[in-house]
Specification:
- Helix 3 runs parallel beside helix 7 (120-136).
- By secondary structure, this protein is mainly α.
- Helix content is 83%, strand content 0%.
- The protein has two domains: 3-229, no CATH class; 246-479, no CATH class.
């Protein structure tokens, strides 16, 4: 399988699972009470937070060692045994800390749920290392099929647990079961041909030395999306958390657009930096920003203007209050037009990335404590948005220093303003034309039908988005 086909297969699998999750969320929101849905979200939040801490960058760093070491079975086995052991320790700790955690979040339902789902952590972490092995060994089809099959099995079992037994406890029993199944089949595929398990303290040590800085950085950067949920749960309780959780998400399509643009235009950043071709980096980055703005900002402005209709239709009337959270949270998409780490990674300034993420992570905790107590769930969303804008600004400043440029050389501010004005004026005109349509579904459907063709035709017609980018994205979709 060629490199392009492997990437396309991975993207197809990821896209399919994102779509399933996106369609599954409204089902869960409608069939569970605030208390049950909030408890469900809190369990996933706690275990995700624990997994982020325990990973230590080992699954990511394994790619490097599998590619460059001849005895890659030793490095894979050592990595897998160690990370599963860490996960087992984490699971034991969460099992015994289930009562204090439930008490801290003032939700006694979490005790039994944590005690069963804590055991998913070693299998979840182990599967991340197995994923690295499967992709390195070019078993992408196996990995994609396993991901899709296990995700569909999980969804079917969750529906069965709720519809037949009306049991959130059984939901987590089934998710644990599918996690074990996924791990077991993945291990079988990855180890096929290997004899037994090898373990080397040295292999673990050198992977830890290289992986730990990456793991700590990933923890603090992704931790920005965990802190708000934990703080809302702690200070406001399970029901406000359920409302918050159903608003605090980005539409999956946005990240797909951003990733696709970077894949089409930015394969040469590292090479240009090492050759000191800074002017070529500026040209590439400016092109990415221009096209990202033209593709992403119209979606963002439409969602901000129609947040309430979208949330009510998507999640139901019970989550109408989630709309303001959705609108605030999606302001983060204004900065999703630029990769703030690629130049610093090419310059090997990962320590700087870590320092900035640590600073903003600490600030995020402080802001959440202050703003939640003052403004409730709106304060939590505001804290996240402020911190994401801040980390973007700090890393952008370091980017500009690394390649010795000014902001206006990377960002065409006039074009950005033009895209915003075009999108805003179009959505306002359509709003007033359809304001007498009382049915929310019909109103939103007609708005989309008129808005997106008009805006994107005008942006393409006046060359706000490059033909090469559109062709590249269409080719990628065709190959998928």
């Amino acid at each position: 399988m060629t490199k392009v086909k492997r990437i396309a297969t991975l993207l197809f699998g990821k896209g399919f699972n994102v779509l399933v999750s996106f369609l599954f969320l409204p089902y869960m929101a409608r069939v569970l009470s605030y208390e049950d849905y909030g408890s469900y979200g809190q369990i996933l939040l706690i275990t995700a937070f624990a997994s982020a801490i325990l990973a230590l960058g080992l699954p990511q760093i394994l790619y490097i060692y599998l590619a460059r070491e001849k005895n890659n079975q030793l490095y894979f086995d050592s990595n897998l045994i160690f990370i599963v052991s860490l996960g087992l320790i984490g699971g034991i700790l969460i099992f015994f800390l289930s009562e204090p955690l439930a008490y801290w979040l003032e939700n006694h339902k979490l005790i039994d749920l944590l005690r069963v789902f804590a055991w998913s952590i070693p299998f979840h972490l182990g599967y991340q290392s197995i994923k690295s092995r499967l992709i390195t060994d070019q078993k992408v089809k196996h990995f994609t099929f396993l991901n899709i099959a296990s995700n569909l099995l999980k969804v079917l079992l969750i529906v069965f647990a709720i519809q037949v037994y009306n049991s959130v406890y059984l939901v987590f029993v089934f998710i644990l079961f599918t996690t074990i199944i996924q791990f077991s089949f993945g291990l079988y595929i990855a180890k096929r041909g290997d004899v037994g398990f090898l373990f080397s303290k040295r292999a673990v040590k050198i992977q830890l030395i290289d992986g730990l800085p990456l793991g700590v950085t990933n923890f603090f950067s992704t931790g920005l999306f965990y802190v708000d949920g934990l703080m809302v749960s702690r200070y406001l309780g399970v029901e406000p958390y359920a409302i918050y959780r159903n608003g605090a998400f980005e539409v999956p399509l946005i990240s797909s657009i951003s990733n696709s643009i970077n894949a089409v235009i930015l394969p040469e950043i590292s090479k240009f930096y090492n050759s000191k071709f800074y002017e070529k980096i500026v040209k590439l980055k400016r092109e990415v920003v221009k096209n990202s703005v033209a593709l992403i900002y119209p979606i963002l402005i439409f969602l901000l203007f129609n947040a309430q209709d979208f949330i009510v239709i998507y999640l139901g009337e019970a989550y109408r209050d989630s709309a303001i959270i959705f609108a605030i949270f999606n302001l983060t998409l204004f900065v999703r037009i630029y990769d703030y780490q690629d130049i610093l990674m090419a310059a090997r300034k990962t320590k700087m990335i870590l320092q900035h993420n640590l600073l903003v992570f600490a600030l995020n905790i402080i802001l959440n404590i202050v703003l939640i107590q003052e403004f409730g769930i709106i304060g939590a969303a505001a804290a996240t948005v402020i911190c994401l804008f801040l980390i973007s600004a700090l890393l952008l400043h370091r980017n500009m220093k690394a390649i010795k440029v000014k902001m206006f050389e990377l960002f065409d501010l006039k074009r950005i303003l033009q895209v915003c004005l075009l999108s805003l004026s179009t959505v306002v005109i359509i709003y007033f034309l359809l304001m007498k349509v009382n049915d929310g579904i019909l109103r939103l459907g007609l708005s989309m039908l008129f808005y997106f063709p008009i805006v994107y035709f005008l942006l393409y017609r006046f060359k706000f988005v490059s033909k090469e980018v559109v062709d590249g994205l269409l080719k990628r979709e065709t190959k998928q």
